[in-house]
Structure formats: C-alpha cells, structure tokens
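pls design
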C-alpha cells in the first residue's frame, strides 16, 4: 500500500489534548487506548461488536471534525473517529465526569454491596471505578432488588442476577464468538436479566469465557466459586496441555494448589479465549492414585521401595534385554522431555525402536510425518493468521471444535467477518461444523481419499488434516496429490500437545532430532558428532510393531511414559504385550499400563516442570512451573539421567534447560527430497461401517476430578442415517444395540438426515464406554440390531 493510501486510510484527532492517528473506522475507546488515555467501560470488549449498553464510557466531543460538537456526552465504544475530532474524557471534562458518575450511581442502586464474598472482589471493574470515580455515599435509601440465587445456567456456570449490569458481554460472546446462542437477555426495562431457554442449559465448549469476561461477578464458575480471592493467588503465564492449539493460560495457585485457569491474552494464538477442557481440566494431578515413590514388583504386587533399589532393578532388567528394547514416551511431553527420551533410547539403550504415538497409527502416516511434517517452522507452516485470510478451508477427517477448539473459534471468526468458505469431509454435519456454515461432503471413512481428490481447491485453499487420517489407507497420498495438483496448502493438527515437539525431537524409529532421517548418512554423522557416540543402525520398530514383538517375546523390555492402554489401537493386545515383557514405567499416576510394570518410577506432573510445547503451527509455546515439587518427585529428564547412570552411561544433561541447550545444537535441517511410497485406498466394502472421533469432553484421565466439567459432556448417542435404520428394521427406535467383533453396547440412537448411508457414528472413548471394548475400529464392520426386551431396562453399555 502506498504512503498516500495509508494516509487516506488514517484519521488524526485530539483526545485530552493528545494528538493520535488511528485507522479510519476505529472507535473512540480504541483510539483512547492508542493515546494512553483510560476511558472507563463495562460492556466494551475489543473482540466483541460494540453495543453501547452500559454507557460508562461517555465522553465529551467538543468538535466532531466539522467545527461543531455534540450537545451531550457520547459513548466512546460506539462512536467512530473523524479527522480533526476533538474529544475530552472524564480526565479533562466535567460533563463527561458527571455523566460517568451518574451511570455509576444508577448501577449501584440495585447492585449488592457484597464485595467481600463476591468472587470478582479485588479484580472488579465496577468496584475499581466506584472507588475511583463514584460518590462516597449513596442517595438511594430504598430496598435493593434481590433474586433467588444462584441460577444454574449449566453444570459449569452459575448466575447471580442482582449483580448483573446488563453489559451483554456474555450474550455477545455466546452469539458472536462461540456460536452457541443459548444465553440471552430476557424481559425488558427494569426486569431485564440474563436467561436461558426453558429446560435448555447453556451448552457450550467455551462457557467458561463468559465468567472471565463478566465485569461484575454476576457469572461465576462452579469450579472456582468461593475458593479464593485474587490477593491470595500467585499467577503464572504458561501454555495449555490439553490439545495442540497452544493456548496461553494464566494459572492461579493458592497454597500449592491450582485454583483456576484463565485464558491468557495472546492475539496470535488464542486471542483472549480458551475452551472449557483447557480451563477446568486441571484436577488430574491431585487424584489419590498419584505415584509418590518408586514401586518394584514383588510377585503379583507393586511395593514401595527406595530410589537406589528401583533404579538398580530397572537397570538390571534393561541390561538383560540388551538391544531388544523399545521406548514409548507418549505424546503429551514437552519438546525437551521428548528429546531426553529420544537420546536415552539411542545412546543409552542403543535402540531405534522409539515411537511417541500412543494411538492408532499407520506406515503411511509415518512416511507423511517424517517427510512432510517434521522440519517445518513457523515461517513456512500454515498459521492461525493464514486461516483468517484463506478463501476456503477443507476439513479432512478433522473436527475443530472437538480436536482443537481454538481453531474452531478462529475459523468461525473468519466465516462471520469475511465469509470464509468451509467444506467438511465427514460422515455427518457435526454441531461444530454447522456453526462454521460448512458444506458437508458426506463420506464413509474408507472413501475419504476419493473425497479429497474431488474436493474443490486452489492456491487459496487450506486443507486441515486430523490424526484420524492415519486409519484410512490412501488418505495422505490423496492429500499430497491434491495439493500438488492445485497449489493448495495443508496443516496436520494432532490432538495432543506434545506431538509436534516429539517429532522435532526425533521420537520416531527412522527420525533423528531436527528432522534428520536415520537413513541419511550425513545427518546421522552430525548427530553422532554432537552426542559423542556411534548411533545404532538397525531399523527401529513403531508402536504397533513394538507391542506385537513384545507379545511374541521378541522384544524383552519396554520403557514407557504416560501411555494409556485405552488410547492404543488394540488395548487388549497392548495389555498382553506389557504383561509378557519387562516394563519400566515413568508415571505421574498409577495407570492401567503402569499397573502392569515391573518398575514404576514417579515423575513430576506438568504443573511442576518447565519446557516448551510446539503447537500445530510449529510455534514454540513456553511451559512454566506452577507448584512446588514434592521432595521425592523428579522430572522425567532427571529420572532418565539417573537411570542412565545406573546403566553406566551418560544422558548428557539432567534438566530441561540443559536439554534445550543440547537440542539447540541440532537445529532443524533442510528437508531432503521425500522418499514417499504412495498407498492406494481400499475399495468400498459392503455392510455397515463405523465412523468415529474423540469428542472434546471424553473419558481422558486428565479430566479426573473435574466433576462439573465431566457432567457437561454431551450425551453419548449412536448416529445413523434414517435410510440405514429403515434397512435394519429400526425406524422409530430410541435405543439400538451396536455389535463389534468382541462385544455389544446398547445406546440411544439419533436418526440424522445428514449422515451418510451404511455408516454408524459413535464417539470414541466417550464417558462410560469405549468402542475398543466391543472390538470396533474406524472403518471396521459393525452391526445394528434392536435391544432385546430383557435388556431394554438396563443401563447403556452394561
């Protein structure tokens, strides 16, 4: 843009005698912020449409830019700047100050003076402004209006109506940002208040944001209510670990316990929002199954022992295994911790059998990750900013609201503001996709490759790819071919916070740190020189191959960290594998996998460590320690260093800072020409097939202890096309029996007209049931039948 065009798009004005230049169309309240002038407000929020509801931002406009002023004060949030405008705020205008004081007096007529017991006390704009600008005594001597309280808007959010100043921040957020307009201003005049539809709670994955932006404590969270006051809290800015979005968090701690999480302000990533899972799902580390001292197996039992004895037992078992050992670190680690596992595997255990993926995987996905995803940087990857500017976004087996909620909010923002076109390749139009006004391409799981190849795309198109693509043969091949043909861009968005960092750290069998491939002699030599050892050259095993080898006795030992059996492709087979081999588990809580271990070494939870996550954009996101570490608990890195000592080896570092410095010595390398093996899609297979993905609020153990959050999860239902139900003779049925290869489950059924025929959809790992329990897999065969009369009264899933 030329300097002339920039000047034409800018406006200069005076605020309290200060000259300021801002873009045309800017509101006075934003211009005041640029000038460093504070204008009081309640209803204004920079990410919400202006409304002028509270009138607290009244200012005097001496000159509107045409030589004439306004006869009375105007709201700064709804008034646009004009060239030559002269404005006076409460700091320089008695008229503005009086107007604001009168607004405060009116608000306080019915507002309760319960600051000592209000959750907003100490951080309340109304409290602050009343103290700074209000009258010292009230002229109102009547009885304040009261309501029964609190009103339960949902399992998570409670409303004290008498505190509400009708700023409409909450209703605008629900409507404009979240797209869940089930919270409204109801009634009129003096009776106006916040309300919900009868018998319909405020159902939103983002409901906690309304409590955070409420300026007066009318909306509070059931989780934090009456638990602390701001002056009791120690606040730390860190990164959310619940998905790969990379949201900034402000975490408040009191007496060593996390009391609440708030959305941080990071315009490039989560702006000022976060999802309810990230906000309320922090109680997991507090549970009674926290491992606080080492455990060693004695017969059938794990018994407490000392660190020297536990490390000696672990070292002895790993030594016996020789190089027949594998490492499964899991996908929730910081980049530095993942790097420690990778270096430990290759320099101490002398194996290339390491895979961070504790989920269904495929060789096609491995090729895709090692040759197209790893090594990318923020400079060349798709970003949130790119989503905001794209013409079209195609969702390929990716449900943003469930798998990366902030991506959903950013997409909805682009849809609302400039009409972004969203296309979803999915079995049905989900609630999240409907809020994006997405065009559905109804697709059975195994037909996804054909749908990708047929998707309309050009250079202004971005494909967003979910981790479920790993389970569909030919899907990644189709994506790469479509991108090559059209010039479109793509981004792979995993569910777990640590997956991109684990890739960068080299936690795959054929991958070394910084995107170096193990079969690249020059890259391998570079790592050997840095680490001072000769690396093993034998090909490593991936997660599935390690578990299969362990089950057969070909793998003698496994080192695992933070792996849940329910997350794996075949939990029963994984359980058999762990039971059949020597297992060392580095764990925070006694999981089903750790319960099968021979040695359990306690490690610190994320609240107690520092490090870095790489979000799906490949953007570094800092992790800061929040709570003091118990004396007997060490980080994964420190435990690995101690285990290396017991094995008469040297890990090279013993803390996150040293690991980061060591990793920085192996910066990402230019990606060589891909050695890609194309995979053909499977042909259509007759019969009913299963479609699934994990919803945001599932049965993850990280949500343990968050009772209100768990209670807000959506009901578990089977979704089927009406035609499919008719063919099965189940038209009008309210419950059905879904049968997989190893069992059945009875659940409520929804006849969904958007659902593709001959496909049954059921959420994976839903609360109270798991599709793995009935031997069902994405794209695999299932059967639908009526629930037998004798089982009709039993609880679903029993």
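designed seq:
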């Amino acid at each position: 843009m030329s300097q002339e065009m920039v000047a034409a798009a800018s406006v200069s004005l005076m605020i309290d005698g200060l000259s300021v230049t801002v873009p045309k169309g800017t509101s006075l309240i934003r211009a005041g912020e640029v000038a460093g002038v504070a204008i009081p407000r309640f209803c204004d929020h920079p990410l919400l449409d202006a409304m002028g509801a509270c009138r607290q931002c009244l200012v005097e406009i001496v000159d509107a830019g045409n030589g004439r002023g306004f006869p009375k004060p105007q709201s700064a949030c709804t008034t646009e700047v004009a060239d030559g405008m002269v404005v006076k705020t409460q700091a320089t205008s008695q008229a503005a100050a009086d107007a604001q004081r009168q607004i405060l007096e009116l608000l306080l007529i019915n507002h309760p003076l319960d600051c000592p017991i209000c959750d907003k006390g100490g951080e309340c704009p109304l409290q602050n402004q009343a103290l700074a600008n209000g009258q010292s005594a009230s002229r109102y001597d009547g009885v304040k209006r009261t309501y029964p309280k609190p009103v339960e808007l949902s399992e998570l959010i409670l409303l004290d109506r008498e505190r509400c100043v009708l700023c409409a921040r909450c209703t605008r957020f629900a409507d404009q940002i979240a797209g869940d307009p089930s919270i409204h201003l109801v009634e009129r005049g003096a009776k106006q208040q916040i309300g919900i539809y009868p018998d319909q709670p405020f159902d939103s994955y983002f409901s906690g944001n309304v409590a955070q932006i409420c300026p007066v404590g009318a909306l509070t969270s059931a989780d934090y209510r009456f638990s602390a006051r701001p002056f009791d809290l120690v606040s730390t800015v860190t990164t959310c670990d619940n998905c790969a979005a990379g949201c900034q968090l402000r975490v408040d701690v009191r007496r060593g316990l996390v009391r609440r999480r708030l959305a941080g302000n990071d315009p490039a990533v989560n702006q000022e929002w976060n999802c309810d899972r990230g906000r309320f799902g922090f109680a997991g580390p507090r549970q009674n199954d926290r491992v606080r001292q080492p455990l060693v197996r004695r017969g059938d039992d794990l018994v407490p022992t000392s660190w020297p004895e536990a490390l000696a037992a672990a070292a002895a078992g790993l030594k016996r295994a020789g190089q027949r050992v594998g490492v499964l670190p899991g996908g929730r680690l910081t980049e530095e911790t993942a790097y420690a596992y990778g270096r430990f595997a290759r320099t101490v255990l002398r194996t290339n059998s390491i895979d961070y993926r504790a989920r269904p995987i495929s060789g096609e996905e491995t090729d895709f990750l090692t040759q197209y995803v790893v090594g990318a940087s923020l400079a060349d990857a798709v970003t949130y900013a790119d989503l905001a500017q794209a013409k079209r976004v195609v969702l390929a087996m990716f449900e943003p609201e469930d798998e990366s909620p902030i991506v959903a909010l950013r997409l909805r923002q682009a849809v609302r503001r400039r009409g972004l076109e969203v296309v979803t390749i999915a079995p049905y139009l989900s609630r999240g996709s409907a809020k994006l006004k997405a065009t559905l391409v109804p697709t059975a799981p195994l037909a996804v490759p054909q749908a990708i190849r047929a998707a309309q795309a050009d250079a202004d198109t971005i494909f967003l790819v979910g981790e479920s693509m790993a389970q569909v043969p030919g899907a990644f091949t189709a994506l790469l071919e479509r991108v090559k043909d059209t010039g479109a861009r793509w981004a792979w968005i995993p569910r777990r916070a640590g997956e991109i960092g684990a890739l960068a750290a080299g936690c795959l069998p054929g991958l070394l740190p910084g995107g170096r491939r193990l079969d690249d002699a020059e890259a391998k030599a570079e790592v050997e020189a840095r680490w001072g050892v000769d690396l093993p050259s034998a090909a490593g095993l991936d997660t599935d191959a390690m578990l299969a080898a362990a089950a057969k006795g070909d793998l003698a030992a496994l080192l695992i960290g933070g792996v849940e059996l329910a997350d794996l492709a075949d939990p029963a087979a994984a359980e058999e594998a762990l039971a059949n081999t020597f297992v060392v588990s580095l764990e925070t809580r006694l999981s089903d996998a750790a319960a099968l271990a021979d040695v359990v070494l306690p490690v610190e939870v994320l609240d107690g460590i520092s490090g870095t996550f790489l979000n799906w954009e490949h953007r570094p996101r800092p992790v800061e320690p929040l709570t003091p570490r118990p004396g007997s608990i060490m980080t994964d890195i420190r435990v690995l260093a101690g285990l290396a000592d017991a094995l008469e080896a040297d890990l090279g570092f013993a803390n996150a800072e040293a690991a980061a410095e060591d990793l920085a010595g192996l910066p990402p390398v230019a990606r060589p020409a891909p050695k890609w093996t194309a995979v053909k899609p499977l042909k259509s297979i007759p019969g009913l097939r299963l479609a699934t993905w994990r919803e945001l609020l599932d049965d993850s153990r990280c949500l343990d202890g968050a009772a209100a959050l768990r209670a807000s999860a959506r009901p578990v239902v089977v979704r089927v096309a009406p035609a499919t139900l008719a063919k099965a003779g189940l038209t009008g049925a309210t419950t059905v029996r879904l049968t997989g290869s190893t069992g059945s489950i009875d659940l409520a059924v929804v006849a969904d007209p958007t659902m593709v025929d001959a496909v049954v959809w059921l959420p994976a790992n839903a609360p109270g049931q798991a599709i793995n329990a009935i031997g069902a897999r994405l794209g695999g065969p299932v059967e639908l039948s009526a629930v037998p009369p004798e089982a009709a009264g039993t609880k679903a899933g029993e």
